[in-house]
Amino acid sequence: MSLAVHCDRLFDGQEVHGPSLVTVEGDTVRAVEAVGEGDVNGRATHRCACLIPGLIDCHLHLAGYSESDPRRAPFQPMENSLRLLTLNGITTVRDTGNSIEAIRFARRRHQQENGGRASPRVFGTGPLLDVPPLVWPFSRIVTDPEAGRRQVSLLHAEGMDWIKSYRNIGYDELRAIVDEAGERDMDVAADVGAVTARQAAEIGVRSLEHAANLFDPRSFPELDPEEFGGAQGRSRLWSRVDLDSEAVASLVELLLEKGTFLCPTLIVSHRWSSLEAMVEEPYLDYMVGVMPYHKYFKRMQGTLGMMIGRRFMNRYLPVPKPSRRERRQIEQGLENLRRIVALLYRAGVKIAAGTDTPNPSVVPGFSLHQELELLVEGGLEPVEALRLATSSAAELLRQPDLGSVRPGARADLLLLDGDPTADITETMSIQLLLQGGEAVDREAVLEDFLSTFKDGS
Fold it and tell me: Quick check: pTM over 0.90?
């Protein structure tokens, strides 16, 4: 199949160009040429205001649960997550913690021809490597460095692309994991805790997950670590971080020296900042199809609903109600988080966009567009934010044929009615999605999604 897209503006993954004609043959971009008035001469099969690469979410979990009989369709919630990603123009994802079976299902889904209903390509870590007490059931236990090496070897044999080190992993274990992964041409992503972000970068992890983890209470000896536990506590901690301090400058220097990536996931820090942030999520209806408990969030919209619902939440999913002082600290901390990402980017640190869906009210697909908005609020230009979800994300994944519009690149393309290089919210003005050169029937994808659940069940 061949086609040609005439766009008023082209973002090629790095730079912005004027009117262009992009020719696709099969699953590959064959030619990109600048065009003037009258130069197209009927060659274009499609027309759009702006053409950009398909988007990449570098930190998520293809997960969910169903309140119907699981024997009917055990992977239905994951299928719904994949559909929402496709609906939003996300063509590639990195799953940073899941079962082997889930990753294999998602990969098979991508490979299937399904009447124009495409699914993102999936790079996965498989189970987390962690030390008891475990946080997640999809974890594998690492008791010592040698156990870490064995688990890396096993995950490699099981076909995983990455290794994910989780919060309780110690220094010696992480060093062994990184060494073994390197011997097998695998990269390590770290969600740090027992090991600091600085130590993980020194050891050689490829990506640090969550900007909120760059500093922890141990970096502030004058503070009581117990006071700053949990997601809200971590946001409050960031109100104490001086972005002009030597500690920040030293971290920047280290990340540059090691070539370490950061995957900020600002959106998940914002959602955990308050129960109101979760309840007021504008795409909450879609989240019910992945995590049905969000139907209770819908009932909490309004003063009375919040009053009644908070009692339920305190029992099942406690989100502390901050005092006025704590709320001010959270707001300042979230602002500092947004700002440090821009600071790191301007210093040359490698950054790739991610969301950590399906955390509460972090909706698959929609949340990546929201993440880009937060990055711009922090000080990035729209073009810079777009790079983080295209070419920079592809660099993190070591996939040079993704995240760009150039001859030889994979033809994952978004045809937009608006111009996100001027207004980042226009990433959602999707006219047409091409995945591997094939037009995706997004209306059919949405219909498939809506048909799988009724009233949140």
Answer: yes
> Count of alpha carbons within 13 Å of 294, Cβ hemisphere only?
26
Query: How do residues 227-265 score in pLDDT, each as one tens digit?
Result: 888 899 999 999 999 999 999 999 999 999 999 999 999
What tokens appear for 375 in the block? Answer: 């990055």
Phi, psi angle pair for 330, to nearest 5°: -60, -45
CA atoms within 13 A on the CB side of 239: 16
What's the rounded Cα separation, in Å, for the pair 144 and 436? Answer: 43
Element (H, E) at 444: helix 442-450
> Has residue 64 got a pLDDT over 90?
no
Give 84's contacts (C-beta < 8 A, 6+ positions apart). 286, 289, 290, 363, 364, 365, 366, 449
CB neighbours of 148 closer than 8 A, spacing ≥ 6? 129, 142, 169, 173, 174, 176, 177, 180
Query: How confident is the model over 325-362, as pLDDT tens digits?
Result: 999 999 999 999 999 999 999 999 999 999 999 999 99
Q: What number of other Cβ atoms are within 10 A of residue 439's Cβ? A: 16
How far lies 407's CA from each of 30, 120, 423, 439, in Å?
Answer: 5, 21, 27, 19
CB 207 within 8 A of CB 352: yes
Q: Are 389 and 89 in contact (CB under 8 A)?
A: no
Largest CA distance in the chain: 69
At residue 453, the pLDDT reads: 65
The two structure tokens encoding residue 415: 């045809």
